[in-house]
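Tokens as discussed.
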């Protein structure tokens, strides 16, 4: 297959260090991690947190991301974050690889998908929140100290949530594409869960915040679930190439609003513009089949969104005097980054197809659309009336009093003194001083409609960051960092393998060194659900002492005892640090699958 290069001679890409901004974006995700932090954690002021999440409900919900400046794990925005990070890599993985950030990007996605897999223990059960905003916002504590409720909330057939299940299906389907080449077993696991979640979302319809009511004040699903059903179908088609999902888009586009709504926003709640952009891509790739007429309507609405961003449509998005698109006072920057991403990919789709954008005021060339995205990113990075970078740690003038519990309180590693619920407000929240920990890479809510911004910790509308602010931006930054010549985005693009860490040496396990045997020991039924107990025996078959053992355990739908969790792996329990020659170690787990978990050796040493 020949490679098509696209040239955009009118764009100057050198005004900002987009590669630096890209690198810093991934550091922000490390600061948002919940659970056991991995050995290669780069944000050293963070510690382990949320280690009992899900325990009261009998499920392991340790891990995932805190959504913003609080310590709650909200499933809907987390899943959207994973979807958009995955889309960024799917489109611009080559550029991320060339910048040396692809491995960090994939790690950021896997931190999210590992949690989402845990949150889906049964085909028609999905946990959508851990903690609740009311008790959490009453306290100002770093995650390592939190004493707030860690209750887990779920959806199921009697309490449906098609929007939550649909978005999570989209996240897993999109992520499966990212992992297809370098971790095919994991990709297949993600895709299997995505199939189940879509079927759950479509069969048992309802809004998730009617079932998980504690989410209503924070992430209310205003748009309903119709957009997520189409969004999930689009990603499942892209991931599986199954005709069923393409037909779903074609047959339900009108009824579910995909071909009817012309949008002026795209984000964690309203997915229509994203669906329309993907459908337009399928059409330009020649994949619409007998649904071409419907997909042309999707494309028309996608182009209405692009024209609205440019100010050249019939219903345009408001812009500040400094040129920033403005949607709302609270965290407006989320709409800036998401619109910039859609404009970027659509510019490349059009250029690949040799087409231009049709707006009410006339045709628009692909470079002009990309130039719009660049202008928004440049504004975010400091080209604005205040000369302020709204990415923490980028440039010289950026927010120093971020509305974020972890960054505003001294690191537990510097001062482990317990910070109480209300004491955190008195001692740390009300300090009129810079944050003790730099939340590098975080994109805050940003300025108001007139380019005004107040760098104050209590100004949560403007100074609070969020994971879904960064997720679309990483794709745009990779694209801009890549320069003027790019590959056609309509050709099948294989995501390159991440470059290995030269310091990381992983020893495969020869069959003669380590043996793992599993067997089911008992099962029982409780409240109509069957539970299975498995025993796993790890035996050191070598003639030397086994040390530094790391095990990978996947397809585990329950709790495990007898090993310690360490990042993505399991290691020796606290009471031993080695396994002599010929000796064995037993661990057990209970889960709801009638087949054993997949246990494999990741690395070890022999002494």
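Sequence:
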């Amino acid at each position: 297959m020949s490679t098509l290069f696209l040239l955009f001679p009118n764009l100057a890409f050198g005004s900002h260090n987009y590669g630096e901004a890209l690198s810093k974006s991934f550091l922000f995700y490390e600061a948002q991690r919940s659970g056991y932090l991995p050995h290669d954690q780069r944000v050293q002021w963070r510690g382990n947190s949320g280690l009992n999440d899900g325990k009261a409900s009998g499920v392991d919900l340790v891990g995932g991301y805190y959504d913003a400046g609080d310590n709650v794990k909200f499933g809907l925005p987390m899943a959207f974050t994973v979807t958009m990070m995955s889309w960024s890599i799917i489109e611009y993985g080559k550029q991320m690889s060339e910048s040396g950030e692809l491995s960090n990007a994939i790690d950021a996605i896997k931190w999210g998908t590992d949690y989402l897999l845990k949150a889906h223990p049964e085909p028609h059960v999905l946990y959508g929140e851990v903690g609740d905003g009311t008790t959490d916002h009453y306290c100002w504590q770093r995650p390592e100290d939190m004493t707030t409720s860690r209750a887990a909330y779920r959806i199921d057939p009697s309490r449906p949530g098609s929007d939550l299940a649909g978005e999570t299906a989209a996240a897993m389907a999109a992520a499966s594409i990212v992992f297809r080449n370098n971790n095919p077993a994991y990709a297949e696991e993600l895709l299997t869960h995505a199939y189940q979640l879509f079927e759950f979302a479509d069969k048992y319809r309802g809004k998730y915040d009617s079932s998980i009511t504690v989410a209503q004040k924070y992430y209310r699903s205003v748009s309903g679930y119709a957009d997520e059903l189409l969004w999930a179908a689009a990603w499942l088609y892209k991931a599986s190439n199954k005709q069923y999902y393409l037909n779903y888009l074609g047959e339900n586009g009108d009824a579910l609003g995909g071909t009817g709504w012309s949008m002026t926003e795209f984000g964690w709640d309203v997915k229509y513009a994203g669906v329309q952009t993907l459908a337009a891509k399928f059409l330009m790739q020649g994949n619409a089949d007998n649904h071409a007429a419907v997909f042309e309507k999707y494309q028309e609405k996608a182009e209405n969104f692009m024209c609205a961003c440019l100010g050249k449509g019939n219903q345009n998005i408001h812009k500040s005097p400094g040129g920033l698109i403005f949607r709302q006072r609270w965290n407006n920057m989320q709409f800036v980054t998401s619109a910039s991403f859609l404009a970027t990919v659509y510019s490349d789709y059009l250029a690949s197809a040799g087409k231009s954008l049709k707006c009410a005021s006339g045709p628009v060339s692909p470079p002009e659309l990309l130039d719009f995205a660049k202008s928004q990113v440049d504004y975010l990075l400091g080209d604005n009336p205040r000369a302020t970078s709204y990415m923490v740690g980028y440039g010289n003038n950026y927010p120093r009093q971020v509305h974020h519990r972890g960054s505003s309180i001294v690191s537990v590693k510097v001062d482990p003194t317990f910070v109480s619920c209300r004491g955190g407000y008195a001692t740390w929240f009300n300090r009129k001083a810079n944050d003790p920990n730099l939340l590098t890479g975080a994109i805050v809510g940003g300025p108001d409609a007139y380019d005004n911004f107040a760098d104050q910790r209590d100004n949560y509308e403007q100074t609070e960051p969020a994971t879904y602010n960064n997720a679309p931006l990483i794709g745009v930054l990779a694209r801009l960092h890549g320069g003027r010549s790019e590959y056609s985005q309509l050709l099948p693009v294989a995501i390159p393998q991440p470059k290995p860490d030269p310091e990381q040496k992983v020893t495969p396990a020869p069959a003669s060194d380590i043996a793992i045997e599993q067997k089911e020991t008992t099962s029982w039924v409780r409240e109509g659900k069957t539970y299975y107990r498995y025993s796993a025996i790890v035996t050191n078959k070598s003639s030397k002492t086994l040390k530094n053992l790391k095990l990978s355990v996947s397809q585990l739908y329950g709790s495990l005892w007898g090993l310690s969790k360490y990042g993505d792996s399991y290691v020796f329990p606290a009471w031993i640090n080695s396994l002599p020659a010929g000796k064995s170690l037993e661990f057990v787990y209970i889960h709801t699958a009638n087949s054993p978990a997949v246990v494999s050796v990741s690395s070890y040493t022999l002494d």
